[in-house]
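User: quick one, fold this
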Amino acid sequence: MKQHLFLKSVVNKWQLHGLTLLLALFSLTSKSHAQGNNNPNYNITTYLNSPSNGLIPFESVSIGTYLGKVKFYGVVLDSYINWTGTRWEMGYDFQGGDQIVDYIGWISYANYGDRPSGNGSDWTTVNGYPIASMSGTGVLFEPQYTAIPDANFEQALFDLGIDAINGDHQVLSSVISEVTDLQIYSRQISNLSGIKDFVNLRTLHFGGNQVTNLDLSGMSHIQNLYANSNQLTSINLSGLTSLSYFNCSSNQLTELNLQGLTQLSTFNCSYNQITSLDFSGIAGLGSIDCNFNQLSSLDVHGMLYLGGLSCAYNPISQLNVSGLTALTFLGFEHTSISQLDASGLTLLNYLYVADNQLTSLNLSNCPSLFYMYCNNNPNLTCIAVSDVSAASANTYWNKDATANYSINCDPVLAPTAVAQTFCAGVKVSELVATGSNLQWFAAATGGSALASNVTLATGTYYVSQTVGGSESDRTAVSVTLNTPVTTTFTQVSPICIGATLADLPTTSNEGIAGTWSPALNNQATTTYTFTPNAGVCATTANMTITVNATPALAAQSYFVARGFQLSTISGYGTSYKVFASANAVTILPASTILTSGTYYATQTQNGCESPRSMLTIQTYPLTALYSPACNSRLNTMADAISCSIVANATNYLFEVTGNGSTRTIYTSTNSFNLTQLQGTNAYNTAYSIRVAAGFNGQYGDFGSACSFTTPALANFTQVTASMCGTTLAALTTPLYCNQIAGAQAYRFEFTTGGVSKTIDSATNSVQINNLTGGAAYGTAYSVRVAAQVGGSWQSYGTSCTVTTPAASSQIRTNQCNTTLANRWSILYCSAVTGVTAYRFEWSNGGSTLTYTSSLSNMQLGNYTGWAVSTTYSVRVAVQFGGTWQAYGSACNVKTPATLAREISENETALTVKAVPNPFETEYVLMAQGGNQTPVQVSVYDMLGKQVEQFSVEASDLENRSLGTNYTSGIYNVMISQGDDQQVVRIIKK
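Assistant:
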């Protein structure tokens, strides 16, 4: 069965690539089929019909031309397959007889329905095509092989299951064309002939072999190439347009052509004899390692994504790293470099330039530089830095004793300036001199620099410049001030928008000529500035010209009560005017009573009158209350009070006056009840009520008032007195109210922060955690209760304050009074539902440290300031609803005895690599070493903001795609596994 499947896969590959199918006449020997029958020899005299050429004998034909028409599909029921040593043979048992047709090669039986009936001698057609004298037929496939002359190479392919037969120095081309990852390292291979037929190869790892020459040209799918630790003297990489990772270290290369490798991001050619490298056209390189070669120069200009550059032990004499803003590692020990300007490399973490010929080293504006080694540079006496004190105190910076730190290693010359004349009133900021970071003084020596807003006086001022933190001597500057003429103009009166605005005068009342800006604008109020002509000592002047907008009086409809008079409109005749028609000359008299119909009106504001707008007036009768009857007593506070319906009214305004106050309520219907009013309603009290109809928010006059008396007795209840003013033990603690005889239900209303929520209960108790959306911890609620009596809800009783318990957490008890194994040991606290953050407080009596986490755990390795082997009192506070709650109970925890991470002898250190890096859409983290414990991953942008955090099993790390939601920029990825921690810097394009 294994042979059967293997052969089928091979033939399918032939069909896929359109190779030639050879059909030939031959004589077959007898053999047994699956049932064990013996069969005679058959002589093949079969011909097939060609639609265009008539009867033709079998010959070499194209699969695409004939195979689909001949259709030898499903003509048999059973089959067997056998390898004779030189070819594959397959037998088929015909239905209804014992005849067998032997085939050499493979025939698909994908369409069983095409099998004709009868035995072989009766088969005259298959799918409508005639078959003459069919006593057997043969099919022979000629497979394509790739020669593998190197026995060790073939042995490796056989061990990997790629080659079916070892020792014949060939492998099926169709099989290797599907291989994407080939790992053949350390197999003593000296010849990789045949490798170019691996046409779909993505990763090739043949490190640790004996290959001397290799041609990979045109293998455009290769992305990762490991050619290290061979004996290579030449390698052809032309056409490898997908290559991202390339390691050819520890070979015998003297030259290397990298042209066309536009996707290369990681490159290692250490330990060769290469004399020059050309990186032109490879803008995305993120890492270069070319230690121990014969390079005399190296051009890395413009490599904006280069994060690591190491080229020690080369005869390089010059190096320009300016503009390499992504650089974090720079290593150039044992070279001939004499000058290095690393200023402005804000991301640089590590710098190794020991054992060189340096005479100049500039490390200004390198805030991230953590490790620096420049020992054994006897000619280096001054190192330029931004902060001398900080540099001197940094124990991770190493230099020769003869070298000193300085803000500026070159003397600063005094700035140049000439005598200056101004109008009086100018500031120090108007003074001019040639130099950098200028400071002006009132004295030749000593004193403080003048502020830029200090007003100048006639006299001598002094200016210095500061370069690289060093200040120059001061230059004397003579200053003369003249008194300016104050310019004035006649104010222009306000205009209506769009009115003509005359040009402003270009000569002031004092005869000073000048210009105005900006250009005149008759569409908006604008402030204009007059500037005297150059050389005239006069003040500027400002004038604001007000442009009043024409009121926008839209055409609209109004509902007014019958008998409405125009005189009741405030400002009628001045601010508002009403006309009988669009062209009427005079306005309607103020005594005019409006009737239903069309009118035209204007509005005047700030002297600007609007165009006439059409007004549609609809008059209506005043409404009045009709149910219950006036002067009657309400049965309950919830009784409906209704008014007559007004045609076209959309809502109603009810006004209720009584018990010393007047209250209103807006409704969309013509009824309401007293319980809907704000405030409390008194029992056995008369209330006067009137109502006005509303039309889409416009309300008319009130109708006549009607008096009602409230019920004589109140059925109200409240929270039991013993629970008022208390803090609940838990959110599930029952809250009780006083019972009302005959009550059908109780409604508890909880109010906090102006928001009220209710819980209805058939009993006289509820639990606050049943509120919709839940209850807040540590919050005071005002609670009142209403009873349902006779099917009607009664008024709420007196309110009562009840406080929910505070949310709190503490360290798990099984970690109290323990010693953490290392700084990456996880310390847990109890999780609290609904909180957004946890704050861990560490105190040892002398100092207090805090750490905030979005999770209910923390690691000491994530922050600094703690002491080793020290017992701390640790307690935890939680953030709930944006507010930090009180700390929980304290617990003693002892810190580890050392900061060092420990690795057991049977483990290798965790090594993680981001691929690809830089990336455009997404990347993955590939780990080597470590162990099987979960991996913690945190991603931070360059401002320290966390953009991603998760935990994943070590085996699943590289299966998780990252970065799709990142913006373009540089990120630090922190990976932790037990004591192991690694930081990888990535770049998204």
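User: anything notable?
Assistant: Confidence is low (pLDDT under 50) at residues 1-83, 86-141, 903-907.
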